[in-house]
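stage 2 :: seqdesign
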C-alpha cells in the first residue's frame, strides 16, 4: 500500500515540475554546457542535472521531453529494505537540504544510498 501511495503522491510533483526519474539522455554539448553531474553532491545530483537542463532548454526555446513508448523499469529494493512507507520521510530531508543548502548530509547518504546493505 505504501508503494502505491508513494506513486500517487509523486505523480502531481512529476506533472507540475515536468521532471521525473528514469532514463536520461542529452547531447554531449548540452551535458558539457551545464557542467554535467555535480559529483560533489552525495545525492540529488540527478534532480539538479535535470533542473539545469530545463534552464538551458528554456534559454534556447526548448523543453525537456520524453521518448514515447519507452519505459524505465523501477526497483522496489528500497521499499523492501526500508519499508513501504519509508519514502514519506524524504520530503522532510529534502526541505532541510533546500533550506540549508546542504545536499551532502553524510549520515543520510551513507544510510540510504552508499551503505544500505546492497
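stage 2 :: out
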Amino acid at each position: 500500500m505504501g508503494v502505491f501511495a508513494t506513486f500517487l503522491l509523486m505523480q502531481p510533483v512529476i506533472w507540475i515540475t515536468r521532471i521525473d526519474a528514469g532514463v536520461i539522455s542529452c547531447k554531449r554539448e548540452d551535458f558539457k554546457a551545464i557542467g554535467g553531474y555535480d559529483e560533489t553532491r552525495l545525492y540529488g545530483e540527478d534532480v539538479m542535472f535535470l533542473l539545469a537542463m530545463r534552464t538551458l532548454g528554456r534559454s534556447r526555446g526548448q523543453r525537456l521531453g520524453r521518448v514515447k513508448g519507452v519505459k524505465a523499469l523501477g526497483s522496489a529494493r528500497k521499499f523492501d529494505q526500508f519499508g513501504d512507507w519509508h519514502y514519506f520521510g524524504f520530503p522532510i530531508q529534502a526541505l532541510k537540504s533546500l533550506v540549508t543548502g546542504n545536499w551532502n548530509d553524510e549520515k543520510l547518504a551513507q544510510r540510504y544510498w552508499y551503505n544500505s546493505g546492497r
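stage 3 :: structure notes
- The mean pLDDT is 84.
- Residues 27 and 33 are 10 Å apart (CA to CA).
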